[in-house]
Design a protein that fits this description.
By secondary structure, the protein is of the alpha/beta class. It has one domain: Uracil-DNA Glycosylase, subunit E, CATH 3.40.470.10. 42% of the residues lie in helices and 15% in strands. The protein has 8 helices and 7 strands, in the order αβααβββαβααββαα. It has a 5-stranded mixed sheet with strand order 2-1-5-7-6, sandwiched between helices. A two-stranded antiparallel sheet has the order 3-4. Strand 3 and strand 4 form a beta hairpin. The chain is globular and about 40 Å long. The chain starts with 10 loop residues before the first helix and ends with a helix. Bound molecules: uracil. Uracil binds next to helix 3.
Length: 204
């Protein structure tokens, strides 16, 4: 935990962890996914961003946040004064969960058991990186990090400690911004997301 902050993993320990995760059978999601999508970024990152799970694009590419939600995330981080390349970017769940509908693969929400089983990997990533701040992008990330259900809306923009003592900034998932129909609502919500992310820049 943060008792060790100041110490950082060398890259090889994250590489070893990732290799271990490639054989993960803790839950069934590995069976239908194309591949593991593990966290990526500097192992001495002071910021860890946690999403929900890889989407269709991430599953095919093998990298986190490279699809539409990733584009919004990149833009908003940039506007907030945070460089994505300084962040370690990962997900609460490391395999894509989907429902096949014809040729399309529709995102399906990971359940509590899948999130809890995968939380071991997220904990292991944090214990190697020892970040100053972790950003929970939405409810799944928050549940994984805290080990209990905590409302995103009522804690939005706040910092809550994990059981291991890592400070977690609570915010929405960027894909929420892609689902808002009304243009002015979308702009306002996006501005609020940027404001949340700016709290990261203020802490590092
Ligand atoms: N949504 C997520 O939560 N994570 C990704 O990596 C991509 C989309």
């Amino acid at each position: 935990g943060p008792a060790l902050s100041g110490e950082h993993a060398d890259a090889s320990t994250i590489v070893a962890l990732r290799r271990q995760a490639e054989g993960c059978e803790r839950c069934d999601l590995y069976k239908n996914a194309t591949q593991l999508v593990f966290g990526e970024g500097p192992t001495d990152a002071r910021v860890v961003l946690v999403g929900e799970q890889p989407g269709d694009r991430e599953d095919l590419a093998g990298h986190p946040f490279v699809g539409p939600a990733g584009r919004v995330l990149d833009e908003c981080l940039h506007e907030a004064g945070v460089d994505r390349s300084d962040c370690y970017v990962t997900n609460a769940v490391k395999h894509f969960k989907f429902e096949q509908r014809g040729k399309r693969r529709l995102h399906s929400r990971p359940n509590a058991g899948e999130i809890q089983r995968c939380a071991w990997w997220l904990g292991a990533e944090l214990d190697r990186i020892h970040p100053e701040i972790v950003v929970a992008l939405g409810a799944t990330a928050l549940f994984s990090l805290l080990g209990r259900s905590v409302g995103v809306t009522r804690n939005r923009g706040e910092v809550i400690g994990t059981p291991d003592g890592y400070p977690v900034l609570v915010t929405i998932h960027p894909s929420y911004l892609l689902r808002i129909r009304d243009g002015s609502d979308a702009a306002a919500e996006r501005a609020r997301f940027v404001k949340d992310l700016a709290k990261v820049a203020a802490r590092i």
